[in-house]
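Running log. JK asked me to keep both predictions on one page so they can be read side by side. First protein, sequence followed by its tokens:
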Amino acid sequence: MPSFDARPRWVERLRRSREPAFLAVTGLALVAGGIAWLAGAREVADACWIAGTAVAIVPATWWVVDALRNGRVGVDVIALLSLIGTLLVEEYLAGALIAIMLATGQALDAAAGRRATKDLRSLLDRAPRTARRRIDDGVETVPLEDITVGEVLVVGAGEVVPVDGWVTSGLAVLDESALTGEPLAVSRRRGEAVRSGIVNAGPVFEMQARATAEESTYAGIVRLAQDAAAESAPVVRVADRIAGWFLPLALAVSGAAWLLSGSATRAVAVLVVATPCPLLLAVPVAIVSGLSRASRLGVVIRNGSALENLGHATSLVMDKTGTLTTGRPTGAEVLTAPDGDPTEVLRLAASADQLSPHVLADAIVQEARIRGLELSLPTEADEEVGTGVTAIVDGRRVTVGTLDLPADAPGWARSAKGRAALDGAAIAWVTVDGVLTGAILLTDPMRRDAFRTIRRLRSAGLNRLVMLTGDRREPAEEIGSALGLDAVYAEQSPADKVAGVRAERERAVTVMVGDGVNDAPALAASTVGVAMGARGSTATSEAADVVLTTDRLDHLADAMAIARRSRRIAVQSAAVGMGLSLVAMGFAAFGLLPPAAGALLQEGIDVAVILNALRALRGKKVHVPVETAAMLHRFSAEHDELRDQLSILRDTAGLLATGDLAATHDALRRVDTFLFDTLLPHEEAEDRELYPALATPLGNSEATATMSRMHTEIDRLARRLRTHLQHADAAGGISADQVDDLLACLYGLHAVLKLHFVQEEENYFTLAPVPDATSNS
């Protein structure tokens, strides 16, 4: 693995403690002087304040020299001159105040530029340090650097593949999401290639090294992150830009006052009132307020530069997996034979899969638990890698896994296979006592808030949205088309992603949102890297400027609005403060404002601009009462249960299309039971309980009017289907003249319900706070 030149930890800690120590010393000097002054010990007070001022002069001088050496002149020059000026005119309290203001501003920016080392350390921490090498009489653990090409390695369950190589045992089940972003595990057979950095999601397998650690995939990712981080230059501070014109003006006024009056006191008075305290405090206060407010939404922004850049951004690059999708496979739909019970099929499959470590088995078990199903403990469980699980559940032999459908497979099974292909889903077949009973379609679903978030991001000022993903082209383009993205690039390697982000960054200020180690280099290459840190990798979070701790992408739009407002308030505070200072400089230049009074006036200006800067802490927020939030979660959970049952409408229409009217008649009775016993009571409860409760957070009752109108259409179609059932019951079966209208009602109701569910989830359910990940709910 590549190495990097890192200071010893104690040196790093000492370096990071400089700014806090500076702030502590100047603060102590100011407070001690204030206590002495109140006690009547004026000389002691002056000594304390002089000491604080003198302490500040030393680093201020160094900052000025360093800035000049780099061809930059900023607020530090004004600060240094004002510190020296207060000593010359014996305005010691003013000097002490300027010193602590300077220390505060520097402490705020102290963490800038430290990201690259942390990025590399985080990436390296994830990398294996050793590997297990096969030898004649067993296995030995050796340092990773000792692995040479051609050696046979053993990779245990849950371990990271140490180097690139080929599978030499029967089959390897791998989680490649760290490199490709693809959430579903993949199988690699004997002779197929595997890459370093991926995780063994199955049992132990053996591989032959085809590259050393230094030349393997994961080492390349670390190098990419190093190169990208090296490109990220620090952003010029808002205060420096304002100082670009304020500094020469302040010096000119001070010099003119001295020349015209012959009094050095006037010149010093001008410098005192020109002390850039509004720049040194107002800007940082506004920025810190914005950072604080963003953190309340679960958005951690690392520094003021990142906040400022976020407010400037016009382009957004996103990964797919874990960013626009949930990042984990879920049971999208449970399909069964016409007389099957989807809930029972899922329960049996989940019971059998409880002991399996496979990622799809875990998804099936989680889906069952989410629905509150009681699982049975399986016996005689046996798992064949790459095929599936066989177990005894409640006295029945259940198998869950892959299956080659025979030519005479039932129609529902062929339909399930075709639907899985269309939806880009993995399919787990379920057999009970040797009979094919059901199929569980597993997909990486789009986030509920994806559509709403994309709209909000565009309204926040982003005019170009791009997807860069390592996933397959078909699902990537489908999601990109649905969300209206400007460009979609699929099957991207980490190097491709970095190149793509660099290309976007050349056009505009670019934000990159990602999840997973494979995104870390691209995040470092962007202007602002945003990590889905609640469930993303540590490396990604460390490489990012912004971390979304609540796993809510829509909060990025909130953060952008906060960034723009905070920057606007910062500039406003600094500009107003400087404007007031300019007026005071005029009075001081004409001898109307002595240094002592000027220092007090300057403090008044400081208080005013700081209070204005604190406005960045406030902002409009949609408040959802606790009772309404609980209601949203309840109806959202009911949606999850209802969604899988919606397939009964399409399955019944499929039977009708085949001409099996007798089977359709029975299925129509089940449809009627579902609609009137389960679905319509749910819709009525939403109209009665949920929609009135949403009127307050949404502003008015009209916000839910369209959804209520949709309920009316759902009720109409349901009653039309019941009328068809009643006619069929009276006639002893479905007649030919009912077929066309029945098909229209069944397919129409299915489409309306799917759309209605998505709209409610997107517009309303996303308002509910995300439950604490540590809770047991």
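And the second, directly underneath as requested:
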Amino acid sequence: MSMATGTDTRSSAPHAADSHDLIRVHGARENNLKDVSIEIPKRRLTVFTGVSGSGKSSLVFNTIAAESQRLINETYSAFVQGFMPTLARPEVDVLDGLTTAIVVDQQRLGGDPRSTVGTVTDANAMLRILFSRLGRPHIGSPKAFSFNVASISGAGAVTVERGGQTVKERRSFRITGGMCPRCEGRGTVSDVDLTQLFDDSKSLAEGAMTIPGYKAGGWNHRLYSESGLVDPDKPIRAYTTQELHDFLHREPTRMKIAGINMTYEGLIPRIQKSMLSKDRESMQPHIREFVDRAVTFTACPDCGGTRLSEGARSSKIEGISIADACAMQISDLAQWVRGLDEPSVAPLLTALQQTLDSFVEIGLGYLSLARPSGTLSGGEAQRVRMIRHLGSSLTDVTYVFDEPTTGLHPHDIQRMNQLLLRLRDKGNTVLVVEHKPEVIAIADHIVDLGPGAGTAGGTVCFEGAVEGLRAGGTLTGRHFDDRARLKEAVRKPAGVLEIRGATANNLRDVDVDIPLGVLAVVTGVAGSGKSSLVHGSIPAGAGVVSVDQGTIRGSRRSNPATYTGLLDPIRKAFAKANGVKPALFSSNSEGACPTCNGAGVVYTDLAMMAGVATTCEDCEGKRFQAAVLHHHLGGRDISEVLAMPVTEAEEFFGAGEARTPAARTILGRLADVGLGYLTLGQPLTTLSGGERQRLKLATHMAEKGGVYVLDEPTAGLHLADVEQLLGLLDRLVDSGKSVIVVEHHQAVMAHADWIIDLGPGAGHDGGRIVFEGTPADLVAARSTLTGEHLAAYVGA
């Protein structure tokens, strides 16, 4: 009896393994974190919130997730680690109770022209195997259906050592690939408009060439005018066939021009190598403008834009080719696969079915597998990454999400919430960085960082449940129940921007008049055709300044001052005040500290161990030579100016000896978009997603144009920052601009003068205008999904 009691006593005591139910972080100091110490419950949904730049990503991604991944990498041998990215240990005293972290962030998917939704999710790989087994006529292995594999063949003699003798044998081989030979699997062909390269009524001597950098007298121009292959005084339209070929298409030829050995090459291949092969985003503005004007991309006439060879398109299953399958809306493709009954490939059909069903479940059923991955928005890219985790059998892992509701209509947010809760209920720890109150409301635990952004943030203001957050008095708590009211009076349009017969992507011959001189909001569920209408259908030359969600590219050497062009007037002001060259005041040019090359830190590579970055001892992290720091403007040296926050710099360059109107104008725009706390020299790599988007907006505000098109400007913005954004949009409209916003945020909808709602669904269920009018009319009608959610938001 006593033995049984003893056994019962032992079994009721908690097992030692069950005591590890917290992730403990002590003394985190990454980026702007100020010695943060918190305990996060495992197997629960924890939401991290706070204003943009308060330290959420620094804590979740750069500390917890980074250390988890680093520890996993360390389990491999030194040899294997040599092939893996080296991760430095985060600045933190103690990290305890970590589990394997799976990071699902908002990094854009690869922009490679051959990367599609099907290739990044492995759905294409499964389809290729399916068609190689069931397709009729049979044309070959799965490679025969891949637009990344070219068809090649060869034959020749090979030498083989056999039985101590050398024997020559004839061998031949053939690989059947699915790549369209004309477009090389890209689906589009580029055509150069010759009228944009030169004026054929003029001669070279008269300055016929209109390409940037090819002015008369320059080396690019002399290469052609002094080559001896064409007559520089003859109009281009009078060239003989041979002269025109030499001028436009001649293959590279070594020759002496003006006494210098040079390589002569036809104008078209030379431009293709020097300009067209570069990434469009990295081009200088005037080069980008020329490329947009001179090059047209059209669907490949041989494959019809499908990327696949004729052979790959000829093999079919029940009348459907692989090109047809990839072009289908995924929800329709899932239905088609469900109807295939073939026991010989049953496991493959099951796996493909699960993948396609996951697309539909996650709200991406409106995509097609042929959609280029570079065209997906940040929110869509993140949801595509989620697909491989939905059916996963893994439990007790930590899922880390970066604003998973970005780009989602309020209707779709409920579905995303269900997915997050499902991952948690499988026994996983779910960490979410998020601003939307709908997601914060379902959290088991909330960590609110702040109180401000940048140096004013980096501390934990609140930990606990939603009720505690509401009563806690933090910035997030105070704004949690904020609701923008409908305008009592809306602005009257000053004109309209006509769109007629729009058919881009899923749009169904849409006719719409977008009012000008007001704040117009284009909304609708994800995939309803908003971006197709605004970015794909607004007529060219309408004076449009477009601010999309494309990423800002920049290394550790890039900062807000270099990105916005602010550094140019600052350098000139320093040079003028001190009588020296402007290049001295650039840490990437003559003024750079020679020890660290202007980086401010010295990197020591330790092979498979994480590299060590130490502050440069010579310049003490200031990045400039000592001689440069002797030059002052308004009593400050260049390193002190770059360490100033935007608001302080705006005052500094606004009056006194340092008065520089050009610099003050740019600083004013940065303050306008809510970036007054950023320091001018802060590396772009340390900025959060919301900060980068606002930096981009500030830069575009300098462009001359009457119509601003903004793509989800509230992405990454805290509830308190949305108010400031609405004020900025109002100021833009009041200054005479027309503002068109593609947006899901109800506060922006409520604040609009005019709403255009697309739908009613996504993909082929959308593409129509379901409402046009004022927000008040939309709420009163409640005729669309958007109307219902907006009415609930404003409490109507």
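Observation for JK regarding the second prediction: The CA atoms of residues 641 and 649 lie 7 Å apart.
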